[in-house]
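Continued from yesterday's entry.
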Amino acid sequence: MLIRFEEMGWVKHFRNEVPKGKKPQPNALQLATANKHVMDSEWILTMDADEFLSVKCGRGHVGDLIEAIDDDADAVVITWRFFGSNGITAWNPGLAIENYTKAAPNKFKKGWGVKTMFRPYEDIKLGIHRPHIKKAKQDSANAKRLFDQKWINGSGVAMPDEFSLSGWRSTKPALSYKQAEMNHYGVKSYEAYLLRRVQGNVINKPDKYDASCFALFDCNEIETPNALRHARGTKKKMAQILSDPTMSALQEKALAFHQERVKVLYDSGEYDSMLTELKEASEVPIDKLDQVLFIQHLPKECQAKVNQMQAAGVPDKVIAKMIAQTQTAKKGEARSALLAAAGETVPYKKAEPEEEMDEKKRQRLKEKTYTVDDNPFIGTKEAAELGVPAAKIQGMALDSSPPLEAIVNAATTTEAADAVEGDRGTVPLPPRA
């Protein structure tokens, strides 16, 4: 269909021939980085087929967004909004923007990932969420050039200076959906999600589309009809495209292919159990998703350690907190290194004031508190795979993790499990001398 689209003059299509052992999405980005037709664009936006850019200014077109932002802006950081299943079970060929109108609220931090619309520049390296620059840590001039770019958020307000160097998630101070947001239809209907589980994914992650992933993406808290303004125009364009006999025949073949795959699901003998699993996952409240253990993005060594801890009885919510904590350490270290390469002072962030707590909770934390010392992912070989350095927190060196038995003994107590509180992944820096 893409080839026919190009023949009809609608798009420019470049094939993604994936060598054996390579992942489709990173390979496509690498090919695009080297493609003069792509790099000669005024603006570039890399996005997935389940991501729809929603422009909320003007008539809702990309040109309206470009017209609304400052002329000297180098990049626009567009924050995701997760759209859920709307409680729809059956696979259907209808428009996503009509079928799925319920989404996550602004405050849903797990949905604060971004996609970036940017002007191409010298030594660029395309990424899934945002562009980077080659040899930033080795070449101070490149790091400085990227640092000096002007990046703005979805309201046209400048992002923090250091964001141009690294980061792929919005933060509370920089979050904004006023002019643009990225509608992310990560699940669609229950059956559509099960079909994605069968067909695999562009980053070759086994079991990516499991129930824990569904729980995170199936957000239906608020009605969000921001894209419906384009439904009529979209249908008009579709009718124009499908008036072409070749394209119409390809569309019918595609629909028949998916309907046959749905039939395979029905006949698998596992359909009912898989559907029940997803519906149970969908019932997890949005304020409890921090306790959902999602490990598909981790290296195999870390996944193996998670499985070992689960087998020993460590609660999933404890493991989930540890993973979030480790990832925060990794991101902070990477950004500090890039700032240093750019010749900029590493910002010091004060620890947040301790939240008020009742006496019972305070006593429980006194008796048994989880610290980063208990995190088996920091300071280990597995952590090194993630790029996490050894760190010193509150005067204690994290050069190695404690024995698994010690973690199990502590984590399997009710007090330890309940003591994992506060903003996930937040590790305060030690006071400066």
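--- second protein ---
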Amino acid sequence: MFVITMTKKKITRLIIITLAVLIGVCVLIYAILSSVNANASEKKLPIYSVERNDKKISITFDVAWENSNTQALLDILSAENVKATFFVTGDWCDRYPEDVMKFFKAGHEIQNHSDQHPHVENANVNDLIEDTREASKKIEMITNTTPTLYRAPYGEYDDSMLTTIEGMGMKVIQWDIDSLDWKEKSADYIIKKVVKNTQSGSILLFHNDLENTTEALPEVIKQLKEKGFEFVPVSELIYQENYIIDHTGKQIYQDPALLTFIDSARAKEVLNSDKADEIKEIVLKYMSADEVAALKDGITPEVISSLLSKMSDEDKNKVLALVNESTQTTENTSTSAPSETSSPLIKGEPVETSASTAQTTMPVSTTEMTTTSMPSKGEGIPIETTSPAQTTAPAVTSTP
């Protein structure tokens, strides 16, 4: 009962801030600042996973070695009616164009994994562009489709690489569930690890040309389906627009209707209306004691994301309706001429803000990327680095 122990002043301040959060002011500010400060102190991130509540997930394969299990993968995915995303290199397209076409004709997604599998961290921009374009051309020659997604070799990235690839019209895709098949783990190990850690919106990483992958895949798919997960290609899992990427690399959708302006004077007016208690009851039921404490000291993107992801669409709409009702009630009972502050609480125009409005709690990733050379299959083990689920920006997990 943490709310009861708070003073009336603190509760009022909390609800004002919470209303602003719900309407989207801070989300918008965070999104704007993320863009403005991209070249400053904040590290850019690729997409590791997606915030979804429908239990949709994606299974992906990095394809750069040989083609020993192409038919086996096709048979397994076909038997389970699962559509996957294959990130293939241009070099693999040169060597196995028929296999690329088999994956494509089976309804799977073919995306870009570079041409020659180079190290892309600190890469020359022109070299990166040329390598990426070459791979896309080869994929397009075979499938007659242009890749829109890119997975970097070794999982490497830096701000320059991300800016370059995004500038080419592609989204950079990582993963939040690494099967570790490339470390030659047993099929049983892979099954347990993947099934235990997969969540709605997860992106699963596997590789082709590995026996343990072929052995583990049927059971992985079966058990995940039993848990209610649905497999879709990555391009169907991710959001194409209206999103932010949080400090863990999770892509979070932001409804444009919520990205609107609310001024504090009008918020206070709502809180003094007969709708205030209803609004408080709805909003606060989604907030933990820690989140309330965090709001008292400042709004963080983590709290915003948590609140908006937990609130049902019904409750969001209910709060917005109550806000508008309280505004209309106030305007109808007012005897004074309309003033500038009596304009509708929820406006259609986005917030105009400046860097000075930013919270000091905006996350700035400082984790340095760690990479290693690509091993030949069965040789050398890429190092394991920080998991994307940490409170700092995810480090690069170098994989083949």
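The chain has 15 helices and eleven strands. The first helix runs from residue 8 to 23. Will compare against the first tomorrow.
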